[in-house]
Write a structure and sequence with these properties.
Elements (H helix, E strand, L loop, with lengths): L1 H4 L4 H32 L14 H34 L8
Amino acid sequence: MELLDKGLDEHRAWNVVAVVTAGLAGLAVRQALQTGWELWRQEEPPTNPAARSVDWAEALTWSIAVGAAVGVGRMLAERGAAAGWQKVRGRYPKGLE
């Protein structure tokens, strides 16, 4: 792995991989949710669910959907990244064995 070849210790290299992977997964999931919401509701999702102009049902629905989907997406991305790490390094990242 290039990161390790440049003197970055394995723990820090894994942290970089995990943060980048989780961030990209979060963005992809949020975009998919936004598209799904627009197809379902025929309107854009609330940009700020805490705003007084957004009714409670819509605010709660959007917040729960985003929270759950982003959490699951990030977990799946991290597990996928760990499997890739294992293929390259021959073992899972420390703490994910």
